[in-house]
Design a protein that fits this description.
With about 475 residues, the protein is α/β, with parallel strands linked by helices. The chain is built from 20 helices and nine strands. The protein has two domains: about 150 residues, Orthogonal Bundle (DNAb Helicase, Chain A), CATH 1.10.860; about 290 residues, 3-Layer(aba) Sandwich (Rossmann fold), CATH 3.40.50. A nine-stranded mixed β-sheet has the order 3-2-4-5-1-6-7-8-9, with helices on both faces. Its EC number is 5.6.2.3. InterPro entries: DNA_heli_DnaB-like_N_sf, DNA_helicase_DnaB-like_C, DNA_helicase_DnaB-like_N, DNA_helicase_N/primase_C, P-loop_NTPase.
């Protein structure tokens, strides 16, 4: 029986040549291909060597790869001239992810064919009087394992019920991230959104200036005190996240830290803060121009290397298209779908920030609703929870009257209302798959240090504040 053995040497060469030229590409394909997926033994050695160098933080180039691998990998050495050939043959670095998926797919086909052939041969060798079912079952299992299909997620309905009950009971005596999820660090968010659970996708929206990035930074820091995680920062620099965190902890305005307007005493406080924050297992990746495939590869890589339990994507609407000429609505739909799949596959909680459309500005109170999310219909089906940050003063500032006469009726009413709502904020729940939707909790927003905090018990609840505002 003639059996096909599918492979693509040129695709393997393109991957390795690209990695030798730019080792940062390794993070983009780490989740798609591994050394054993390569058909050529020499290619397996080169890829495994590059992976070891990247994991240990060493540089990757032709000379280093040759020196590192010349002792041989499973009896296979690497010809230094061939390494140069790999680099010279690269056509387009942007095609590396495509080639990685192709090599992985061909490897899966080879494994499946080999398992199927073994099964056929085992059945053919059976004694004619022997029951064939056992051999057939073994062949089925061999084929299933060859495809690396994870059946650990398959249980009977009653088993899932027992598992959920066991976790709930375990949480009574010893709460943990695995059983009770990640707290947000702000009671208002915990009440509205619930804890961030493994496999969950939370979409967080808010109009510009409402503090959605500020809340994400606070949450990241508090998440990090409970479990490792990372921020995929597509908009802000990594330093910006750190400045906001230090501002909140030091009570120094963020603009002073960013512009180096501090004295020696303040510098000492910030230095001590930075030292303490280095112990926090939170990684910030601000790589530019990331599509959803690259983000997924990063998440898989960090899950494997750091054991991450959560990730934050800032933000959903600037994820790059995977293909040319994709419509933005299609990009957003694909990205939100993949983020949800990623959350389930890696068993991590995912929070994605999202932009709002212009409709929110047309309402007097500026209070966001579900439909205000940009490309809402593309996002909503995949989200487990949707929350918004809302600061009433933002909408009120946009309706500031002519203040030429500060004693006019309109000017006085505007100032009185601003005094009442200044610093107030809301966390609004637009969807919650595992809890009550359409909830609102009040909190405060401290503008100078750009962070939220829970309201003190003695302060006026926001619902009562709105009743007071109606007088104006």
């Amino acid at each position: 029986m003639q059996v096909p053995n599918p492979y693509n040497i040129e695709a393997e060469q393109q991957i390795l040549g690209a990695l030798l030229m730019r080792d940062e590409i390794f993070h983009d394909i780490a989740g798609d291909v591994e050394a054993d997926d390569f058909y050529d033994r020499q290619h397996q050695t080169v890829f495994r060597t590059i992976a070891q160098l990247v994991d240990t933080g060493k540089r990757v180039n032709a000379a280093i790869v040759h020196d590192f691998a010349k002792s041989g990998d499973k009896g296979t050495s690497v010809d230094p001239d061939y390494i140069e050939v790999l680099m010279e043959g690269v056509a387009d670095l942007r095609d590396t992810i495509h080639y990685a998926k192709q090599v992985r797919d061909l490897a899966r086909r080879r494994r499946w064919i080999a398992a199927a052939v073994d099964g056929i041969q085992a059945i053919g060798r059976l004694d004619p009087l022997t029951e064939a079912q056992n051999a057939i079952d073994e062949a089925d299992v061999r084929i299933l394992n060859s495809s690396k299909v994870d059946v650990s997620h398959v249980r009977m309905f009653g088993e899932w019920a027992q598992l959920a009950t066991s976790r709930a009971i375990a949480a009574i005596d010893s709460p943990s991230v695995a059983t009770s999820g990640l707290k947000w660090g702000l009671n208002a968010v915990d009440q509205v959104a619930g804890p961030l659970m493994p496999g969950q996708l939370v979409i967080k929206g808010g109009r510009p200036g409402s503090g959605k990035s500020a809340l994400a930074g606070q949450a990241a820091e508090f998440f990090g005190s409970q479990a490792p995680g990372f921020i995929m920062s597509l908009e802000m620099e990594g330093e910006d996240w750190a400045i906001r965190a230090m501002s909140a902890h030091s009570d120094l305005p963020a603009w002073r830290i960013a512009n180096a307007r501090i004295n020696e005493d303040e510098a000492g406080r910030l230095d001590e803060l930075a030292r303490r924050m280095r112990r926090l297992p939170v990684w910030i990746d601000h790589s530019p121009r990331m599509d959803i495939e690259k983000i997924r590869a990063r998440a898989i890589r960090y899950k494997h290397k750091f054991g991450i339990r959560w990730m934050i994507v800032d933000h959903l609407h600037i994820i790059e298209p995977s293909f040319k000429r994709q419509e933005r609505a299609d990009i957003t739909a694909k990205a939100s779908e993949e983020l949800k799949k990623m959350a389930k596959e890696l068993q991590i909680g995912v929070v994605a920030l999202a932009q709002m459309n212009k409709e929110v500005r047309s309402r007097d109170d500026g209070r966001p609703r579900s439909g205000d999310l940009m490309y809402y219909s593309s996002i909503e089906p995949h989200a487990d929870t949707i929350i918004f940050t809302h600061r009433p003063e933002i909408a009120h500032l946009e309706r500031k009257p002519d203040m030429t006469d500060p004693d006019s009726k309109d000017a006085v009413a505007w100032r009185d209302k601003m005094t009442l709502i200044e610093g107030r904020a809301e966390i609004i729940n637009a969807k919650r798959r595992h809890g009550k939707a359409y909830q609102t909790q009040a909190c405060e927003f401290v503008g100078e240090t750009m962070h939220f905090r829970d309201l003190a018990a003695k302060e006026l609840p926001l619902s009562d504040a709105y009743a007071e505002m109606k007088r104006f």
